[in-house]
Every structure is written in C-alpha cells, then in structure tokens.
Amino acid sequence: MKAIDKNTEFYLNVNGKEVGPLSFEKLVDNGLMPGTLVWWQGQ
C-alpha cells in the first residue's frame, strides 16, 4: 500500500452525496464519522 502524502485530496460520501476534494485536516469538519466512505485519487 502506498503512503498518503500531505497533499492528498480526499472525498467523502455524506448522506449519499460526494463531498470534496478535502485536505486531511478538513475531513472531520466535513462529516467524517466511523463508517463514512472515504477515497482519494488513484485509490
């Protein structure tokens, strides 16, 4: 598995809608909870 660098942009599925791109620091502010689907480019 490739390491994730600090410039990686993440996407979330929140209530059936795609949210992102987001920095790692912004994930929780935008709905990250246990069980939230998260992905990033190239995953």
Keywords, please?
about 45 residues; mainly beta; about 0% helix
DSSP strand tally: 3
Structural class: mainly beta
Helical content stands at under 10%
Mean residue pLDDT: 90
Based on CA atoms alone, the radius of gyration comes out at 10 Å
Explain what this protein looks like in three dimensions.
By secondary structure, the protein is mainly beta. It has one domain. Helix content is 0%, strand content 35%. The protein has no helices and 3 strands. It has strands spanning 10-14, 17-22, 37-40. The chain has a 3-stranded antiparallel β-sheet, with no helix packed on it. Strand 1 (10-14) and strand 2 form a beta hairpin. The model has no long low-confidence stretch (mean pLDDT 90).
Task: Annotate the secondary structure layout.
Blueprint: E1 10-14, E2 17-22, E3 37-40
Antiparallel strand pairs: 1-2, 1-3
How would you briefly describe this protein structure?
The protein is an all-beta fold and 43 residues long.
